Amino acid sequence: MENQNISDIIEAYLKQILAESQEVEIRRSEIANQFNVVPSQINYVIKTRFTIQDGYVVRSKRGGGGYIRIEKVKLLDNLDFIDSLVAAVGDHITRHDGLAVVRSLFEAGTINRREANIMLAAIDKTALNTGDRDLDEQIRAQILISILDHLRYES
Amino acid sequence: MENQNISDIIEAYLKQILAESQEVEIRRSEIANQFNVVPSQINYVIKTRFTIQDGYVVRSKRGGGGYIRIEKVKLLDNLDFIDSLVAAVGDHITRHDGLAVVRSLFEAGTINRREANIMLAAIDKTALNTGDRDLDEQIRAQILISILDHLRYES
DNA sequence: ATAATATTAGTCAACATTAGTCAAAAGAAC
DNA sequence: GTTCTTTTGACTAATGTTGACTAATATTAT
C-alpha cells in the first residue's frame, strides 16, 4: 500500500468520492494539477479503472465549461451472458450472425420484441451498406458491442 | 454545475420560459446584454440547442422592432413527426444532432428510455468510428433512418 | 414614391478552452 | 532481459466566445 503508483492514488481518490455520491464530475486539468500529472493520465486512469465492466459509465464534454463525469451504475445479473455474446461478435460479424445475436438476447428475455427490432434495424442492410462488406461487418460488430455494453446495466 | 458555460445558462433560461409558455420572443441584443455576451452568441446558442432535431422552430425578423421567436414544435401525429425527423437527419448527421433526434423521439413518447439508450448506443462514437468522419456521419444517418422507418409501422 | 439612414438579426472566421488519442519512454513485475 | 503497466507529451478534436462584416427591415427626409 505504501508503494502505490499515482494512477492507483487517483483511482482511490475518485472512488472515495463515488462511495458517497453516485457520481463525480471533474475538470481534467484540475485533477491533473492536484496530483501533479499530465492531463492525459486522467484518461489512462479512467480507461483502465472505470470501465463498464467495473460498473462505471463515463461521459465528458470538451470546450469551455468542459468536464468528465463518472457515474456508478448498477450492473445487472447478465454479465457472463453479455460477455459471451461480445466474444461471439468479435471484431467482424455478418448480418446472419448478427441476427442470431439479437435473437439470443430476445430468447433470453434480455430485450423485448420492440427492442430487438430496433437493434435489427440498426444492423440490417438498409443501415449498413458502404459497399465494402468487410467494413460493414466491422461496423456491425461495433454497433452490437456498443449496445451489448449498454445492456449490462439499468439506465 | 459550479462551472457551467454561459451558453448552457442562456439555454436553460430560454427553456425555462418555454416550459411555461409554448413560445419565447426575445430581442437579441437585450438577452446578450442581460447575460453580458456579444449578440452573436445568442445565435450560437440557438443554432446548437434549439434546432428542429431538438423540436424547436425559430423565426426572426431584422430591422426596427426585430425579434427572435423560438417555438416548441407541436407534434401532429407520429407519422408526420417521424417524417420530419427523417428529413432532419438527411444523408449525414453529426453525433450531436443524432442525439437530439433520439431525445426528441423520447420526449415525444415515441420510444421509452431503454429504447432511446439502445438507439444512442448504435450511433455513438464507440459504435461509429471508422476514422473517416464523413463516412461515420453517413452511416449514422442510415442507421437512424432505418430505425425511424421501423418505428413508423411499429407504433 | 424614393432615397438615405437607423435599427435590428445573421454569418463567418479567428481565437480560446476544454478533453481525447496515440505512441514513445520509463518503470515495475516476472 | 522480456513483458506488462504506467507516465509523458505532442498532436487532434470538440465546444464555446468574440467581433468584424453583411443582410434585412423599418423609419425618416426629400
TrEMBL record, chains A, B:
InterPro entries for this protein: CtsR, CtsR_C, CtsR_C_sf, CtsR_N, CtsR_N_sf
The record's Pfam families line, in alphabetical order, gives:
CtsR, CtsR_C
An example GO biological process term is:
regulation of DNA-templated transcription
Q: Which residues form the CtsR C-terminal dimerization domain?
A: 77-148
Keywords of the record: DNA-binding, Repressor, Transcription, Transcription regulation
What family does this chain come from, according to its entry? Belongs to the CtsR family.
Q: A single Gene Ontology molecular function, please?
A: DNA binding
Give start and end of each CtsR N-terminal HTH domain: 5-74
Protein name per Swiss-Prot or TrEMBL: Transcriptional regulator CtsR
UniProt entry tagged with the keyword DNA-binding = yes
Q: Which organism is it from?
A: Levilactobacillus zymae
Taxonomic superkingdom: Bacteria
